[in-house]
Specification:
By secondary structure, the protein is mainly β. It is built from no helices and 26 strands. Strands 1-4-7-10-13-16-19-21-22-23 form a 10-stranded mixed beta sheet, with no helix packed on it. A 6-stranded parallel beta sheet has the order 3-6-9-12-15-18, with no helix packed on it. The mean pLDDT is 92.
Length: 215
């Protein structure tokens, strides 16, 4: 499958785009960067150099993805999400006589979004942290620390309020911020089974990948 590139999109030299990916209107992708196969990049989104995006990632409109961000396969980044990469940014050096470089330097901090995660609309993502596998960030949240796998976080700053299934439905809610334990719990929506131990989610019946049987 070929890449679908809107005529108003700006894709700089050094950008590698996988087959079947669609880049919509007024997107700007700096090079070098990598966009995987089967992705959707929504209109007016900006992707900086050195960003790495996996396969089947959906990025909605007006998303800002700065340098040092890595997004794994199957992630959804909803409209208006902003990533950051500097905890203590300044425009100039202390003497005000020299501007600080806009490119990555020793102050730049990475962010990793693990496979299957969802980031809700209007969220702000801090840096030097990990958004866990199949986790979910509620809309409008400000994420200041790493999100565990399969956790739903909401708020400003974001806090864990529940565990979420691969299908997106919560299957265990946290009571007043306490992290619950469950020997076995089943998603009422799709039937996948999990255990929760001190807040850590363990998959008991993960889906079998296509082609994995007999390998």
């Amino acid at each position: 499958m070929s890449v679908q590139l809107h005529p108003t999109a700006i894709v700089e030299d050094g950008v590698d785009i996988g087959p079947g990916t669609s880049i919509w209107s007024h997107v700007h992708i700096r090079g070098p960067a990598r966009i995987g196969a089967g992705c959707i990049i929504g209109e007016k989104t900006y992707i900086a150099y050195d960003v790495r995006i996996g396969d089947r990632v959906k990025i909605n409109a007006f998303v800002y993805i700065c340098a040092a961000v890595t997004i794994e396969d199957g992630v959804m980044v909803s409209a208006g999400t902003i990533f950051t990469n500097d905890r203590f940014p300044r425009a100039t050096e202390p003497d005000l006589l020299r501007s600080r470089a806009s490119g990555p330097d020793e102050r730049t901090r990475p962010t990793l979004v693990r496979e299957g995660a969802t980031i809700g609309a209007g969220s702000v993502i801090g840096c030097d942290l990990v958004i866990g596998r199949w986790s979910m960030v509620g809309m409008g949240s400000v994420v200041t620390r790493s999100v565990p796998d399969f956790h739903l976080v909401v708020g400003r700053p974001a806090r864990s309020v529940a565990c979420v299934c691969r299908c997106g439905e919560p299957f265990l809610r946290f009571d007043d911020g306490l992290r619950l334990n469950a020997a076995t719990t089943t998603c009422a929506s799709c039937g996948l089974r999990y255990a929760v131990r001190d807040g850590a989610v363990i998959e008991l019946s993960p889906p079998v990948a296509v082609g994995a049987a007999g390998s």
